[in-house]
Design a protein that fits this description.
By secondary structure, the chain is an all-beta fold. The chain is built from no helices and 52 strands. The chain has a domain of about 150 residues.
Length: about 475
């Protein structure tokens, strides 16, 4: 959530179902009802290393490292899966159905679970690894052996290298292609499905980009001057290229670059340059979902503007992180802006009432509705379709729309308790939210929360929902 303020077992682990201890169904409201089920305890075995709590992105599962006698154990939703001498980190596949983890015995590290068991051992494995492809079919991790680094993709080692770049590898959305940056001595290489492209003097951080089908790869590199390489072809020279400023459109047919020449910044889209600016905001380059439109934030003569389809909007003192945001139907765009010390949300060129803090700009799936969270006079509020309400003492995630665009939900604080709010109706009184709320494709909202050390699965269902089908 971006907030802007003013001043792995030897084979793939199938997720085990936990024994239900207690189930409570809260009386149905006109639009739906909540149910709460105790699925385990955070105390047995106790969570010993908080930073290694891992949550599935679908909100259904949580794993942590607990202490069991002289060993560590990997715990899933309150049930011990495996005991090891040392467990480093656990990660869920994107759909939450599989789990991979790193372990060590007698100082020798390996990766367990995932989609393949490679049997390789190392002196160390990078924190946060392994990582998964978006389709959940591939895994990768960075590891060290004999003072050299290797990037292992589906059990195949790439290397050795003196360094593996941050934030790599990246997989194409379809999972067919993997790419990463690596250094040999003082030169950089980009490795694309095991083939090295290089050497280069330097690479721009975050510039590695892949199309969804994996057929186009681009990155920003340096030999005296900066340039973009696409599928092995070098483009024109620039004085500078911004971080995270090489971007493909969702359909993979278009490419955008934020670059500078002679002290002036510009955006190139399909080789055509924009007006020049004093600066381009990092991470602001955004193609619309249909790939036909384009927007970004730029600084010109002391003022920030959001440029949509080549036309700049109103002038502001700052543009908020994460801006701009496109609606799923590509017809609307929203962003956070600061003016005279207050923060505004601008949607379709119309601004909201000013606030001291703004977060979670969200369009409904049909693109017709819009919501965000705001802070004013000591209270947080949610604005839905221009109407402010649902006042709280804090947010515990993002504002969400249901798949049919009819319902709005979020987790928040009221006093010192966490609540789940759907369409203005709250349920909860929890001591903490363990996994943030997620709307599933069947329209149900699901999250994990705790009261004391009890772990609860909380589900909100519309009154006309079909039977629950959980991965």
């Amino acid at each position: 959530m971006n907030i802007t303020f003013r001043n792995t077992v030897l084979k793939q682990l199938a997720l085990a179902a936990c024994v239900v201890q207690t189930s409570v169904c809260v009386a149905a409201e006109p639009h739906g009802s909540f149910s709460e089920t105790v699925i385990g305890s955070l105390a047995t075995p106790p969570l010993t290393r908080g930073p290694y709590l891992s949550r599935s992105s679908n909100g259904c599962h949580v794993a942590w490292i607990g202490q069991s006698g002289d060993a560590l154990c990997l715990v899933l939703d309150g049930k011990v899966l495996v005991r090891e001498e040392v467990i480093g980190h656990a990660t869920f596949s994107p759909d939450g159905s599989h789990l991979a983890y790193t372990k060590a015995k007698d100082g020798v590290w390996s990766v367990m679970g995932g989609n393949r068991v490679d049997g390789q051992t190392f002196d160390g494995i990078a924190d946060g690894d392994p990582v998964w492809s978006a389709d959940g079919k591939r895994t990768a991790y960075s590891a060290m052996r004999g003072g050299k680094w290797f990037l292992v993709v589906d059990g195949v080692s790439n290397g050795p290298y003196s360094l593996i770049g941050d934030g790599v590898p990246i997989f194409s959305a379809a999972g067919s292609t993997a790419a990463f940056c690596a250094k040999k001595d003082d030169k950089w290489f980009v490795v694309y499905d095991g083939k090295e492209d290089g050497p280069y003097d330097d690479l721009v951080k975050g510039s590695l980009a892949l199309t969804a089908d994996g057929k186009r790869l681009a990155f920003a590199a340096k030999h005296a001057s900066w340039f973009v390489v696409e599928n092995g072809r070098r483009g024109p020279d620039y004085d500078e290229i911004g971080e995270n400023a090489v971007l493909f459109s969702p359909d993979g047919k278009r490419i955008a670059i934020a670059c500078a020449k002679a002290g002036k910044w510009m955006v190139e889209v399909d080789g055509k340059t924009s007006t020049t600016y004093d600066s381009i905001m990092g991470n602001s380059l955004k193609f619309s979902p249909d790939s036909k439109r384009f927007a970004y934030a730029a600084l010109q003569e002391g003022n920030w503007v959001v440029v949509v389809d080549g036309t700049g909007g109103a002038k502001y003192g700052h543009i908020g992180d994460g801006s701009p945001v496109w609606s799923p139907d590509s017809k609307r765009v929203a962003y956070i802006a600061e003016q005279n010390g207050d923060w505004l949300v601008v949607v379709d060129n119309s601004s909201s009432t000013s606030a001291q803090g703004v977060c979670s700009l969200t369009f409904s799936p049909d693109g017709k509705r819009f919501a965000f969270g705001g802070y004013r006079d000591g209270k947080w509020f949610v604005s839905v379709d221009g109407k402010e309400g649902m006042f709280n003492d804090g947010f515990k995630g993002d504002v969400l729309f249901s798949p049919d665009s009819k319902h709005v939900a979020f987790a928040g604080l009221r006093g010192n308790k966490c609540v789940v709010v759907v369409d203005g109706k709250a349920s909860g009184g929890f001591d903490g939210v363990v996994c943030q709320p997620v709307f599933r494709s069947d329209g149900r909202l699901e999250l994990l929360a705790r009261r004391n050390t009890d772990l609860y699965r909380v589900v909100w269902s519309a009154n006309d929902s079909a039977p629950l089908d959980r991965p």
